[in-house]
Amino acid sequence: GGRIRSHVPLRSASAAGAMAAGFVRELERRAGPALRLEQRAAGGVGCVVWDAALVLAKFLETGACPLAGRRVLELGAGTGAVGIMAATLGAEVTVTDLEELQELLGVNIENNKHLVTGSVRAKVLKWGEDVTEFQPPPDYILLADCIYYEESLEPLLKTLKDLTGPDTCILCCYEQRTMGKNPEIERKYFEV
C-alpha cells in the first residue's frame, strides 16, 4: 500500500482574497509520480480528499476494473482524486460536481495533466437535474463518500438511474458512519 502524506499550506489567500488557503495532499501511485491534489481549508465537504476517495483511487490502481479507453463519470468529485487517478490509468473521464467546486477541480486537473494517459475534464452536474449532455451511459460511474446528506439522497438516486445503462458498472466507496441518521440514509440508498 502507498503512503499518504499531507503537507502544510503552500499558499495563502492573496490580498484580493482570490483563493482560500490551500494545502496539498499527495496520493502515491504504484507506477510513476504521486498525484498532487490541492485542497481548501474552507469551502465545505468537497474541498478535501476524504478517506473513501483514497480507498477507491487505490482500488482502481489494482486493475480489478479495466479502465483503459473506458468512459468514466465521477459524481461528487470534490478534489477530483478518484477521477484523475482513473485518467492516469487510461480512462476517458468526466469529473462532476457543483459550480463552486469547478475551480478546484480545474487546478487539480492542470497540476496532474502530465500523468494522465487517458483524458479528464470537469463539468457541472447537480444531482436530480438533466443528464442529457452526459449520454450515452458511461462504462463506469464512480462515487466516493456521497451518501451522507438525507436531502441529497433522492436527487443522487435519480441521477444514477438516469445515467446508468445496461452495461454501466457503479463503483461506490463510502465511510460507514454510525452517528445520527447516517445508518438510515445508507439503508435507503442500498434498498434501491
TrEMBL record:
One of its GO terms (cellular component) is protein-containing complex. InterPro entries: Methyltransf_16 (IPR019410), SAM-dependent_MTases_sf (IPR029063). Pfam families: Methyltransf_16. GO terms for biological process: methylation. One of its GO terms (molecular function) is methyltransferase activity. Transmembrane segments: none annotated. Keywords: Methyltransferase, S-adenosyl-L-methionine, Transferase. This is MT21D methyltransferase. It comes from Ceyx cyanopectus (Indigo-banded kingfisher). The gene is Vcpkmt.
